[in-house]
Design a protein that fits this description.
By secondary structure, this protein is an alpha+beta fold. It has a single domain (12-188), classed as Electron Transport, Fmn-binding Protein, Chain A (Pnp Oxidase, Chain A), CATH 2.30.110. A hairpin with a 3-residue loop joins strand 1 (31-38) and strand 2. Strands 1, 2, 3, 4, 5, 6, 7 and 8 form an eight-stranded antiparallel sheet that branches. Helices cover 34% and strands 31% of the residues. The radius of gyration is 20 Å and the shape is elongated.
């Protein structure tokens, strides 16, 4: 029996249990890292753009999944179909930024790093039939460039078949997930406000993206 991935260290004040935020993370940062323990090659990690899906009419807390595809030439594609493969781990990384201790109330402080990350665990279902992969690609296209769908449908059928044959699709029904938002929740309100003001008015693009999440998650 191959080992499985343990959960991420997430102090309670950094835990973000609202599924709508997890789905927003996937939509805004779709390039995930797919990690698996390959029975042949051991621990492996591959960057893969993914989207989330859910049953039609499902409520927010009902089952959902991730899906994407790999090049057939990628050794990890064969590993996905292995009967020995256990759960995989998918990680989405959101914005992150250095936090200077100059924003804190006391000089007895040290720097830190704020960030958002989402980890998803589940077992892989391989999608390798032509119709299934074609539908999967159309869902992926719809999230990034809906207008390209018409161009894809207009390509020669033999070209489409070659392209579909060169990939292996997959779906990962989500068994469990954790989203961590480390946003200085353990600091005083005044300190948090100084950090936020710096990020919004003087920060890099990454800091501004992080600040937007802080605003989104702040109590109304």
């Amino acid at each position: 029996m191959w080992p499985t991935f343990s959960g991420m260290y997430t102090p309670k004040h950094f835990d973000l249990p609202d599924l709508s935020h997890a789905r927003l993370m996937v939509q805004e940062h779709p390039l995930a890292t797919l990690m698996l323990i390959d029975p042949v090659h051991g621990l492996s990690a591959t960057p893969v753009p993914m989207i989330w899906g859910a049953p039609a009419g499902a409520s927010a807390d009902e089952g959902w999944w991730l899906e994407g595809h790999l090049a057939r030439a990628n050794p990890h594609a064969a590993a996905l179909a292995s009967a020995e493969l256990g759960e995989v781990l998918v990680q989405f990384n959101g914005p992150g930024a250095y936090i200077s201790p100059s924003h804190y109330d006391t000089a007895l402080s040290v720097p830190t790093w704020n960030y958002l990350t989402l980890q998803v665990h589940g077992r892989v279902q391989v999608v390798d039939d032509e119709a299934g992969k074609d539908a999967l690609l159309k869902r992926l296209i719809a999230t990034q460039e809906p207008d390209y769908a018409a161009q894809w449908r207009g390509l020669p059928e033999d070209f489409q078949r070659r392209m579909l044959g060169a990939i292996v699709g997959f779906r990962i029904p989500v068994a469990r997930w954790t989203m961590k938002a480390k946003l200085s929740q353990n600091r005083s309100p005044a300190e948090r406000e100084r950090i936020l003001a710096h990020q919004e008015h003087h920060g890099s693009l990454e800091e501004q993206l992080l600040a937007r999440w802080v605003r989104e998650l702040s109590p109304r």
